[in-house]
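Loading example: each entry is read as three labelled lines plus one structure line.
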Amino acid sequence: MSPTVLTADPGAGTVVRIHGRHIGDRIYRGAITFFAVCVPLLVALVAWEIAVAGWPTFRHFGLSFLTSSDWDPVKDRFGAAPAIYGTLVSSAIALVIATPLAVGVSVFLSEFAPRWMRQPVGFLVDLLAAIPSVVYGLWGIFVLLPLLRDPVMPFLRDTLELGSTPFFTGPAYGPSMLAAGLILAIMVLPYIASVSREVLLAVPRAQREAALALGATRWEAIWRAVLPYAKSGIVGGIILGLGRALGETMAVTMLIGNRQEISASLLAPGYTMASLIANEFSEASSDAHLSALMAVGFTLLIITIVVNAIARWLVWRVGGGAASKAL
Amino acid sequence: MTAGVIRTQRPSARQRAVGERARKSLGRRRAVNGVMLGVLATAAVITVLPLLFILGHLVTKGATSLDLAFFTHMPTPVGEAGGGMANAIVGTLIIIGLAMLFGLPVGVGAGLYLAENRGAWLANSVRFLSDVLNGLPSIVMGIFAWQFLVRPMGHFSALSGGVALGVMMIPMIARTTEEMVRTVPTSLREAALALGYARWRTGLTIVLRTASAGIVTGVLVSLARVAGETAPLLFTAFGNQFWSTSVTQPIAALPLQIFNYAISPYDDWHRLAWAGALVLIALILVISIVARVATRARFDMGSGD
Amino acid sequence: MAIEVKSELAGLADPRPANAAPAVTPERTRLAAESLDAWFGSIHAVHDISLPVREGSVMAIIGPSGCGKSTFLRCLNRMHETVSTGRVSGRVLLDGADIYDGGVNPIAVRKHIGMVFQRPTPFPTMSIRDNVAAGLRVMDGHVSRRETDAIVESALRRAALWGEVKDRLGASALALSGGQQQRLCIARALATSPRVLLLDEPTASLDPASTQSIEQLVRELRGDVTIIIVTHNMQQAARISDRTAFFLAGDLVEVAPTESLFTSPSDPRTEAYITGRFG
């Protein structure tokens, strides 16, 4: 606060001190504006640093970087197709498994469950989201993989005779696309569930009461009135889950087997973009190898930004501010 | 509930469908209702099951490997029994402390700006890009911090790990701060301004303090989230088998240690990995519970209003 | 009850500093609006209003909802401009100095002109004592702990709240009842010894008993502090004010000694309003 100036009022003989300037407010405004501007700057900085580092790779390989399966650091040949394929497939498996469960649990909690049950179950679902990726990976290695090796994989392949399709052939090692998809399913489930729950809570009461008043059962009211209303918000939640699955690193790295190969079989090991970076980055000795990994990172960054933007747009359309809080 | 037939003069296709449904036997529709309730309840059970499964394994496998030495001893070389993760526990605390150092001022400042400039184009873009930042994969944060700090510095460091995690905290803290500051009534701001408070003083001593319980909760939640992050630390903090508290040197961290031990071929290390996971989860749970208690305190205070 | 604090403690904000001219005539104008206009964006809410207020008097401003009376009041301590679309033109003289003059710091203005709002606004994170002392923290010069305690006590006494809270000064202000909270806000405004106290419908959210205690308080402060009170309650204006101003659709229709305004209004619109024909 700067000193104020005296303003004399000779007529009355009293003095009122009201003149002066406040630089405090300018500093305050400047500071919070600076911190706010830091956010876009950081996004730009992250994108810029990675783009610059990956640029030589993009320039050298062009589009074939995304389509080639030839990844050979020794010969400086880099094609990220297996990692991109693995990222998409493992995320797809995760969504196929997690979506019905997540929507089911959120419909159950918001429409059917008795009041006493809502909070504890909701808390448990939130807790799933709080478990670190590396702990999921640890559990996956020592509990999920042995289970998959025997009996789950042989059961799927031989007993159910799914081995006759190209998707379940080959030896049952354990580390596989299927294992990565399963752990991802468990990990993205709470995200989808919490967005769905918020969206369902944002559906106006009148929507379901109108259906119930027409004589619909609870399920019919949900199926015909509530879910259609909440549909695009739930889809937004699913795509948000997709965004998480695409970038998930540790658990996938620990379970997917890490092999640079595109195989139709879900029992076969694979790679994802994130696990490729996690695995090779610290061992990368040549500049070309580092740049290729940065290029993979940049591809992943762009994909997740696009996916997240779509998700947010969908959720925002239904629930406005309230539902988007859950994101 | 009754199954009434809906009559209108010119029923639309949709209305005819509703009418048809209504004509179906009530018993069958009730059965469908019951079956679907069962399906949904099953979904809930299946969802919660892996959690209980994971927690069960953590507790049984972790607790049996956990002893005092885990907290007080350093890691031992392969083949030597015993040992602990004292350095990793301290390292994790140092890294999340550094993360707070970067994330807290930027997050709270940006949140204040967002709350005080609603609708401004800059605020809208900041909010959008904050969401973008929040959605970036953690491994991307890791390679960013490597390129930005580790490469120029020439070596791994606790500092670079703290920056990576701090950047991840910013969007979470900014969002909670904005929401909590918005819940402070305009009348309180006006009361402070009318008392001759400058805007900065109003913002910091009245608005921020009134919203502080909620903000603390948000900060703790973000802290709990980054405390378990591994991917951003792989090429930044890197890990360290020895005791180090220097911010410019590579430093051990619990999640890194768990990862390295989990993928190792040694049973001793597997046991330590489980114990580490249990400690990490316990740390996160404690932070989360403190956050919940802080939220409750806020509501208690609010109810007196 | 008079201020029990020495003028040096209250600092320069004291309306009658020891070194000032001793004779303060009761007829002196303390605050005067001159050709004041106010807008919300393009909405012209207050039209060309000139209104002098005598030192130590109580001025009531009445009028139907939306007549601009609260906006006018908020122009008197430069609060109107804190609304993003708010704009003001004209002059407001505080002891002869125009508070809208170019070099004037609005924050300093507000230190001399206290304000109490429609709903009680105790600061929820502060104790009762700290609420009353809140304004002292931003006064020029240091106020010691002992001096603060003395000022807090005297402000609470003037706000007729001391007896009710003296044993729990450290308690949260939110523990008080609505009426007590409002008197706390008055005490908070009085603690800095403002030259003028603006009350914006201070009893609108209170029960009848609390309303009565606030009215009693205004009567007691009369002569000591210059008060401008906006109220939608004509009886209240009649009970507590020396002069009353009637606002309608942003215009000042009539200002007169309270008794004459209510018994023999000169403008037919005033008459229509006070006899309940509109508004």
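The longest helix of chain B spans residues 26-65.
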